[in-house]
Amino acid sequence: DIQMTQSPSSLSASVGDRVTLTCRASQSISSYLNWYQQKEGKAPEVLIYAASSLQSGVPSRFSGGGSGTDFTLTISSLQPEDFASYYCQQSYSVPWTFGQGTKVEIK
Amino acid sequence: QVQLQESGPGLVKPSQTLSLTCSVSGGSINIANYYWSWIRKPAGKGLEWIGRIYASGRTNYNPSLKSRVTVSVDTSKNQFSLELGSVTAADTAVYYCAREYYDTRGYHYYYYMDVWGKGTTVTVSS
What we know:
The structure holds two protein chains of two kinds.
Chain A: E1 4-7, E2 10-13, E3 19-25, E4 33-38, E5 45-49, E6 53-54, E7 62-67, E8 70-75, E9 85-90, E10 97-98, E11 102-106
Parallel strand pairs in A: 2-11
Antiparallel strand pairs in A: 1-3, 3-8, 4-5, 4-9, 5-6, 7-8, 9-10, 9-11
Chain B: E1 3-7, E2 11-12, E3 18-25, E4 34-41, E5 48-54, E6 59-61, E7 69-74, E8 79-84, E9 93-105, E10 108-116, E11 120-124
Parallel strand pairs in B: 2-11
Antiparallel strand pairs in B: 1-3, 3-8, 4-5, 4-9, 5-6, 7-8, 9-10, 9-11
């Protein structure tokens, strides 16, 4: 299985901050990388697929980058509704695997 | 707007079989470019993909669970199901069903879960 490692596991930030989350794969996965946001008690929602494609309806302050083994999710200006957990997921080979998540908290 | 809804017992005894159903509304389960998946999240842990099924019945499973898992589809009822046998406390989790879409770009197939159910909590306890 492909192992996905996210960093940091948590971070504190303020509204308006630029935030970058990192995800690393244990082997090259090209651009087969998705990002999800999960709020407490809710189901995850896809933000980014294919490493950098913005899912329809997702605000443009979210952007994804990277390829191979190293990927980023950037929130250009953190909004109150963005405080949540974020998970990366590889779709290069089954079984799909997720990172352990990054929790974005209010400073 | 497609919606998914999980249903099934919230409490299962150890060694028994966990059975959940996901009902799909607002669209057909029998269409191209979509798989139908199960994912779970134990408390305090990350997400774990369990397996998926295509409307034709083709399945993929997580090897870590494969010996205990069966995912099936009933296109006449527009629903798909999960069975997980010989459960233990480690199977206690929130279980989600999700629609898995694939975006094709030449020879590349980019899969991602674009619609999720709200999730259902299953506790394994005697």
